[in-house]
Amino acid sequence: MNKPLVSVVMSTYNEEKYVLASINSILNQTYENIEIIIVDDASTDNTVSLIENIATDKIRLYINDTNKKLAHNLNFAISKAKGKYVARMDADDISRRERIETQVEYLEKHKDVDVVASYAKTFGDSDIIKKSPCTHEGIKAALLFTNPLCHPTVMFRKSSIDFGYDESCAAGQDYELWARIIDRKKFSVLSDVLLDYRVIKRQRNPSYLQLQKASALRAKKYLFDKLFSYERNVFWDTFKSLVDVDFTDFEPKTQEQMKSIVAFADQLIETNKLKKVFDEHELIKALSTTVFQQWYLSFLKTDVSSKIFMKSNYVRALRQETVLMKMKVIYKLGKKKILK
User: Fold this and answer.
1) By residue range, what is the domain housing residue 158?
2) What is the largest CA-CA distance in the chain?
3) Residue 212 to residues 97, 170, 206, 335: CA-CA distances in angstroms?
């Protein structure tokens, strides 16, 4: 097989604890035709010296005099990339040895795909498999409600890059980008776990979460407006209430609020039937998961009835294992409540 060059782009800022492990996970790939482009964002620790001491000619290091933030650094790194493909990598994560080879093989075989990501396994303060819909239509539908892609698993086709990260986004730059380009680039996700994704406490900083939330709403608005361009003022507040399950400041819904959410979900599906923005089957799956999360989180914290969700159109669309897993937790809390 032809071995096209892959440019791995990374931004670093005070990552002396983790950066060597991250870089070594790229240098030790089964795929060897790689360059690593690193933009250091004015680190004040030993990050730069650690990188400079790595004995390889595969690394190109650029050092900012001032802190310019992630979106700027990634745009700059991509502009310097010489590879046929551009792979994202974070300075505190670990790429599995076959990651680059697997993604290159996929893109070489699927010439119509512009962006490919993969599953990831979290470690540190979390231990789960980060999954996503694998098809383009599934990814697009999921983007209306959440960011389904694990950013450092992504690989781009360089010839397809006629876009950039929005440098006005202080957080969640990837979500904003995916929502902006989903209608003109083809996405795919591999169900292989190709990255170990570090979850650390600083990612839960309240101010940073608020920046993420603002950026996420901006991304969701791109897709929301395709459905409700003329009715935005009527439905926007209900939509925001529906999609706020991504964040730790979730507010449990009352009985009446849940009824409104389910009614809005019905309206969303009917509107999509007319405008055909999303694949209907994929939209129902994504919407069902979101409605279920709203009901489930509210159910755990309030006296909202189970009947609102269990009698809706959305319970049937959920994967059976998802429902069973949640029901086990609910039954442990008390059987009486679920029978309301």
Assistant:
1) 6-204
2) 66
3) 30, 8, 10, 37
User: Which residue is it, tokens 């620790």?
Assistant: 45
Report yes or no on 223 lying in a domain.
no
Closest CA to 167 of 177, 155, 153, 154: 177
DSSP 249: T
H helices of the chain, where? 19-27, 47-52, 69-80, 99-109, 136-143, 173-181, 206-227, 232-242, 255-275, 280-301, 307-310, 320-333, 335-338
pLDDT tens-digit map of 40-97: 999 999 999 999 999 799 999 999 999 999 999 999 999 999 999 999 999 999 999 9
- How many Å apart are CA 168 and CA 92, to the nearest integer? 24
CA distance to 170, 254, 273, 288, 331, per residue, from 309 (Å): 36, 13, 22, 10, 16
**DSSP helix/strand/coil, 11:** strand
Amino acid making up residue 336: K
Q: Identify the CA nearest to 136 among candidates 157, 158, 115.
A: 115
Burial label, 79 (beta-carbon count in 10 A; 0-12, 13-18, 19+): exposed
Look at residue 219 and tell me if it is in a domain.
Answer: no
- As a dihedral over the C-alpha atoms of residue 222, residue 226, residue 231, residue 234, rounded to 10 degrees, the angle is -40
3-state secondary structure of 203: helix
**Separation between Cα atoms, residue 49 and residue 26, nearest integer Å:** 18
Residues in the chain: 340
Residue 164's nearest CA partner among 155, 173, 172 is 173
Tell me the C-alpha distance between 56 and 191, whole Å. Answer: 32
Number of folded domains that form the chain: 2
200 lies in the same domain as 248 = no
The residue behind tokens 């979900």 is 265
pLDDT in tens, 118-154: 999 999 888 889 999 999 999 999 999 999 999 999 9
Burial class (CB in 10 A: 0-12, 13-18, 19+), 313: middle
What is the chain's percent helix, strand, coil content, to nearest 5?
50, 15, 35
